[in-house]
Structures are given as C-alpha cells and as structure tokens.
C-alpha cells in the first residue's frame, strides 16, 4: 500500500526560463495536501531561477506551481505548492523519522531521462553528516541507480516511507 502511494505521490516538475536551454525536468514528492492544495518537496536546483514551474501528476493532471519555502544555507531543498483541479487518489507520502542503516534496502522513484515514474532499488552504502554553516544534515549515499531527472524524487525504505530526496 505505501509503495503504491509512493509511486502516485511522485511528480514530474518542468521548470522553464531558468537556463539558457530554457527548461529543466526533475522530480518532486507530495508531502502535504490541504483540500486541493498540494505541497511538494524537491531540490532547489530543479527549480532554480525558473520563471514558471509545471507539475505533472501520475493521473495526467498538470498544474502551475509556486515556491512556498526554501531551505537556508545552500541546502538543496525547497517546498513548492500547486492546486489540483480534480479530486484524486494522490495523497502525501509517509515520512520515516528514524535513521537508515548501512546495507538497508531502499528504492527510488523519479523521472530520469524522460523515463517517467521509474522505480529503482539498491542499498544504503553510507551515511554522513554534512555541515552547512553550523546546520547539520544527514546525507545518505546509495548505490540505487540515480540519473538526471531523478533529482527531487523520493528515496524510500522497503515499507515505502520517505527517507530522503535524491540529488
């Protein structure tokens, strides 16, 4: 059940106007839903300098998004929001609150190289703490295949609970 929800909670984010080539394709994860307003977690570099953001959902719906919050101190995380037009089965992922151990099996969902809603599995290779000007962030290294377009998508434990955002 949680694995299927993780797949449905993944989105495609197309940001335009941020680069010379005009559009960037990345991923995001639904972390909250209030009525028809959806809140998504993704990487800052997916939407950096964009003039507009378009979010595509698993059910085919497309919505324009805006930035709600950006992490401080060069941490590559941002929250964006958009409005769903139709009531759907899309619901937020469940967040995992513990630490993930080395050699634990995980899976990633993302949109690499225009392969939308792809699923890959692997294990956690290592965990380290990255210091951002006094703010500590847990970083997981995984041997799960991650490619361009996976950025902003979720990394999940075997129960389908979100443990991190791919970068």
Overview of the structural elements:
There is one protein chain. The protein is mostly beta strands. Helix content is 7%, strand content 49%. It is built from two helices and eleven strands, in the order H-E-E-E-H-E-E-E-E-E-E-E-E. Strands 1-2-3-6-5-4 form a six-stranded antiparallel barrel. A five-stranded antiparallel β-sheet has the order 9-8-7-10-11, with no helix packed on it. Strand 10 and strand 11 form a beta hairpin. The chain is globular and about 40 Å long.
Quick overview of this protein structure:
By secondary structure, this protein is mainly beta. It is built from 2 helices and 11 strands; from the N terminus they run αβββαββββββββ.
Task: Give the helices and strands, then pairings.
Blueprint: H1 2-9, E1 10-16, E2 23-34, E3 37-42, H2 44-47, E4 52-56, E5 62-70, E6 78-83, E7 105-110, E8 118-132, E9 135-142, E10 154-157, E11 162-165
Antiparallel strand pairs: 1-2, 1-4, 2-3, 3-6, 4-5, 5-6, 7-8, 7-10, 8-9, 10-11
Per DSSP, what share of the residues sits in E-state strands of 2 or more residues? over 45%
First-to-last CA distance: 26 Å
Treating each run of at least 4 consecutive H or I residues as one helix, how many helices? 2
Order of helices and strands: HEEEHEEEEEEEE
The rough form would be described as: globular
Low-confidence stretches: none
On the 0-100 scale, what is the average pLDDT? 91
Helix percentage: under 10%
* Computed CA radius of gyration, to the nearest angstrom: 15 Å
The main pleated sheet reads as:
6 strands, antiparallel, barrel
What is the number of E strands?
A: 11
Read across the widest sheet, the strand sequence of neighbours is 1-2-3-6-5-4
SSE-based structural type:
mainly beta
